[in-house]
Design brief:
The chain is mainly α and 330 residues long. It has nine helices and no strands. 83% of the residues lie in helices and 0% in strands. The protein is rod-shaped. The protein starts with a helix and ends with a helix.
């Protein structure tokens, strides 16, 4: 079914419908742009967060071998890759939907404007022809009335015996002249009417259907492009899902790599001093003449060793607290 045949008298409906279609296309473009901004901001925030929580410090800290520390760094790396995929979604939506449909929208606006202009011009031509027909018709009506009046006047003079033959002949000639003029106007009106009817048939059966069918074709192309844009909205994200899934799998894998027993063993291997635990403190019986000990290390043998331990290894704050806790338990 086509608009030209079934909607030949619905010019206003077609005008409003095609405009509403362009408005919807423009709304969808704005919608995609807003979604793109959300993706860009999301990716930016993810990158800032990964940067914030990534390790910063000495070489020893950056090269920490504890599995729970290393896994967290792997999670941050995967999250950075994940942010890259969100950026890719934004870029593809801009290129394949927003930019493409924006250009297409401008082309459709110009095409619609051209079709509506052609329709308006055709209407104006038909209206102009109708006005010309009306003017010829009025002239014919006027001339026929004058000819009829002149004929009646001539007949009246002829039937009146008081009028001379010259006056009667003059009236008849005048009536005949008016009748010829009226007949010319009648022929002109008939020819113009035939011409107008031909133009009107062309307008309603050829020009308007052609223009309306072009508008229908334009609108259907718009709908197809919009439908493709709807599908692209989904496909663009689905295309990066395999990589996003790998990022998420990488995060899960980082969690499974953690080995708490291995981390405990590693701490022991790194910071075990090798010293024996201090022996029991002997009783010093001053009543038997034993002199008091002046060496503080004799009462606290570990105090002198702590300096060596911490000087030998430069450790992180968290590891330092762990070692101090171990010493406090001794």
């Amino acid at each position: 079914m086509d608009w030209g045949t079934n909607l030949w008298d619905q010019n206003d409906v077609i005008d409003k419908h095609t405009q509403a279609g362009l408005d919807l296309l423009e709304r969808y473009i704005k919608f995609v742009k807003e979604r793109t901004e959300i993706e860009q901001n999301y990716a930016k925030q993810l990158r800032n967060m990964t940067k914030k929580y990534s390790k910063r410090g000495s070489k020893e800290e950056l090269e920490c071998k504890f599995s729970n520390h290393a896994s967290f760094q792997e999670i941050l790396n995967e999250l950075g890759d994940y942010a890259g995929q969100r950026e890719l979604i934004a870029e593809n939506m801009t290129a394949n939907i927003s930019d493409k449909l924006t250009k297409y929208l401008q082309d459709l606006k110009q095409e619609r404007k051209t079709h509506l202009s052609d329709m308006k011009k055709a209407q104006q031509n038909l209206e102009s022809s109708f006005k010309h027909l009306e003017s010829i018709k009025k002239r014919f009506a006027k001339e026929w009335a004058e000819a009829d009046k002149a004929t009646q006047q001539a007949d009246k003079l002829e039937n009146d015996n008081n009028n001379s033959k010259i006056d009667v002949d003059k009236a008849k000639n005048h009536a005949l002249a008016r009748m010829r003029t009226a007949e010319e106007c009648r022929n002109s009106y008939a020819a113009e009417l035939q011409k107008y009817n031909k133009e009107q048939n062309s307008f309603y059966y050829t020009e308007i259907p052609l223009i309306f069918n072009k508008l229908q074709d334009m609108d259907e192309r718009r709908i197809r492009q919009l439908a493709e844009g709807y599908c692209q909205f989904s496909h663009i994200e689905k295309n990066v899902l395999p990589i996003i899934s790998k990022c998420l799998e990488g995060i899960a894998a980082a969690g499974t790599k953690i080995d708490e027993k291995k981390d405990s063993k590693l701490l022991i291997e790194q910071y075990k001093s090798g010293f024996e635990r201090p022996a029991d403190v002997e009783f010093e019986d001053y009543s038997q003449g034993v002199k008091p000990s002046n060496s503080e290390s004799a009462l606290n043998p570990l105090k002198g060793r702590k300096h060596k331990i911490f000087k030998k290894h430069k450790i992180t704050q968290a590891e330092k607290h762990m070692v101090l806790f171990m010493f406090s338990m001794i």
